[in-house]
Design a protein that fits this description.
Elements (H helix, E strand, L loop, with lengths): L2 E4 L12 E5 L4 E3 L7 E2 L1 H6 L4 E3 L13 E6 L7 E8 L5 E5 L5 E3 L5 E7 L5 E2 L5 E2 L4 E8 L5 E8 L11 H9 L2 E4 L2 H11 L5 H7 L4 H11 L1
Length: 223
């Protein structure tokens, strides 16, 4: 999708620096969705003294995987919170709305960058995964007294909850009370396997000092 920038004004032209793009709907170049200015392809090609092809398809330097607050410059709209999911084959950033149905190319000259959105995680799980609002995580509750018991609960991270797991002291207190947070159910089950008391001294002596994988098989056989 080619785009052109006005480098010299002429009668009836838009403001200097205006960027226009091809609209297949009207088969002309236009400046915005409501077609406040249109220009034929013939005019563009025959008048390079006025129109210059835009070569930089990502002037805002947007990056895949990051979220941004973008403002559409051609009409009075609210800034849009979007995430850049990929680049097109022509090198344009492709945005997807975080809280809206926005989905499409971030065309040069049509958006201005308000800010990059950098969120702090609500907490970090035992297996080292940052958890943000809306993420799924698994809480493991274990008890050794009087007997070993465990339960795994699936949870959704919520912004209106202050998680004690986001600081060292809070994490240590929860761990002391037998509470552990993991990013997956499998990680929680792995923790149970590696910490369940089920082998006796005789089991270890009779094992002949097995390697880690063999010890795991022995533990599983005792469950």
């Amino acid at each position: 999708m080619k785009e052109y920038k006005l480098i010299k004004k002429y009668p009836g032209s838009p403001e200097l620096g205006t960027i226009i793009y091809w609209s297949p709907t009207i088969s002309k170049f236009t400046v915005d969705l409501i077609e406040t200015f249109t220009c034929s392809e013939e005019t563009i090609i025959n008048h390079p003294e006025f129109w210059e092809e835009v070569k930089d398809n990502n002037p805002l330097r947007l990056e895949v995987g990051k979220e941004y607050l973008l403002q559409y410059v051609h009409c009075d709209t609210y800034p849009r919170r979007v995430k850049i999911t990929r680049f097109t084959k022509d090198g344009y950033p492709w945005m997807k709305g975080v809280v809206s149905d926005v989905n499409g190319i971030v065309s040069p000259g049509h958006y201005k960058l308000i800010k990059e959105i950098i969120e702090k995680p609500l907490f970090t799980t035992e297996d080292g995964v940052n958890i943000y609002e809306g993420d799924k995580y698994f809480q493991l509750a274990i008890s050794f007294n009087p007997n070993f018991r465990e339960a795994i609960y699936e949870e959704i991270a919520r912004p209106n909850i202050t998680y004690s797991y986001n600081c060292k002291e809070g994490r240590e207190q929860l761990n002391k009370n037998g509470r552990y947070y993991f990013s997956t159910k499998e990680a929680a089950e792995e923790y149970i396997l590696m910490n369940r008391p089920c082998l006796s001294v005789n089991d270890l002596l009779n094992s002949g000092f097995l390697m880690r994988e063999e010890l795991i098989k022995l533990v599983k056989s005792k469950l």
